[in-house]
Structure formats: C-alpha cells, structure tokens
C-alpha cells in the first residue's frame, strides 16, 4: 500500500478482534513513530503500556473497543511554554506515524482523550510536567467504518498577498 493509500484508508476502530498484536510489531511501529519531526530533537514522547488492572480502573465506557493492547502516550513539558506546545505537536506526529505504520499492516487504533481528566492521570501515574496526548486501543479491526465526509480542501485554502 502506498503512503497515500494508507493515509486515505485509515479509520478509527471502535471494535477489535481478540487476536494478539505481537510486541515485535509494536516496537517496529514505535521505532517508526520516533522518526516524527521534533524541534530541537527533544523526543518528548513516552509510552505507557496499560495492563488489565489499570485498564479496569480507567473504566472507559466502551472498554476501548476491547482492543488487545492499550497504551498511553505522554508528552514531556519543555523549558518554556513554546517548547511545551512544540513537544505536544511533535508527540501528535509520533502518534500519527504509529497509527499509519500499524494501519499499513492491518492493525487499527482508537484514540481517546480520557486521560485528560485529573483522576485518570492519577490512575496512570502521570508525573507532573507531562501531558497525556491520548490513550490508544490497538488491535485488528472487528469492523471498519466507512469514511466520514470531509470538507473539500478548496474550502480551507487562503492565499496571502
């Protein structure tokens, strides 16, 4: 699959099969994710793999679609407000690289912002000085939804003098 096909076909997965995702594959995708652009090479991301006990405490309304792998991706704060923002943006690029690398091999993801809440951060043991970019279910899709309509890019373009 070409990169354009991968990007255009990627979907958020809401129901996963129980088939395991092998740790070697996860590491391959994480290593690819780490090639994300990040200003001043801060490499601000950290990944927490979430076990069953912690998952139960998170108490997500859909249990992350029963994904066999659950992970949180954190972004470290920078020395300045600007660097903290740049780090969060770099970590979002890290996440997108991971999502696309996994999708190319038939594995989908579900991105949840559940850990933005203080009590969920506490459950995950997120230290001060970190933002949680998301909690991700990862696995083989049980269902793949149709693409949602997008605003034509022509409607999003502006030309400056």
Q: Which strand order do you get reading across the main beta sheet? A: 1-2-4-3
Poorly predicted runs are none
**Coarse structural class:** alpha+beta
> Proportion of β residues?
15-25%
- What is the averaged pLDDT score? 97
Report the C-alpha radius of gyration, rounded: 17 Å
Q: End-to-end span in angstroms?
A: 39 Å
User: Any idea what the shape is?
Assistant: globular
Report the CATH architecture. 3-Layer(aba) Sandwich
Broad CATH class: Alpha Beta
Q: How many strands?
A: 4
Largest sheet geometry: 4 strands, antiparallel
| SSE sequence, one letter per element | HHEHEHEHE
What's the number of helices?
Answer: 5
CATH topology: NADH Oxidase
The name of the CATH superfamily reads NADH Oxidase
Number of domains: 1
Overview in brief:
It comes from Bacillus salipaludis. Its cofactor is FMN. This protein is α+β, with helices and mostly antiparallel strands.
How would you explain this protein's 3D organization?
InterPro entries: NAD(P)H_nitroreductase (IPR052530), Nitroreductase (IPR029479), Nitroreductase-like (IPR000415), YdjA-like (IPR026021). GO terms for molecular function: oxidoreductase activity. This protein has helices at residues 3-9, 23-33, 52-58, 81-104, 118-124, and strands at 45-49, 69-76, 108-112, 130-139. The radius of gyration is 17 Å and the shape is globular. It has a four-stranded antiparallel beta sheet, covered by helices on one side. It has five helices and four strands; from the N terminus they run ααβαβαβαβ. The model has no long low-confidence stretch (mean pLDDT 97). The chain has a single domain (13-143), classed as NADH Oxidase (3-Layer(aba) Sandwich). The chain is α+β, with helices and mostly antiparallel strands.
């Amino acid at each position: 699959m070409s990169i354009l096909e991968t990007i255009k076909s990627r979907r958020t997965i809401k129901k996963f099969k129980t088939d395991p995702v092998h740790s070697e594959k996860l590491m391959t995708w994480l290593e690819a994710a780490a090639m994300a652009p990040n200003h001043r090479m801060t490499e601000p991301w950290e990944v927490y793999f979430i076990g069953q006990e912690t998952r139960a405490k998170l108490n997500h309304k859909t249990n992350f679609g029963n994904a066999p792998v659950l992970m949180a991706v954190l972004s470290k704060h920078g020395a300045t407000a600007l660097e903290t923002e740049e780090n969060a943006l770099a970590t979002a690029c890290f996440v997108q690289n991971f999502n696309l690398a996994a999708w190319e091999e038939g594995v989908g993801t579900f991105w949840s912002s559940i850990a933005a809440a203080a009590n969920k951060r506490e459950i995950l043991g997120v230290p001060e000085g970190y933002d949680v970019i998301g909690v991700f279910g990862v696995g083989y899709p049980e269902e793949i939804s149709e693409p949602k309509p997008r605003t034509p890019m022509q409607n999003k373009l502006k030309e400056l003098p």
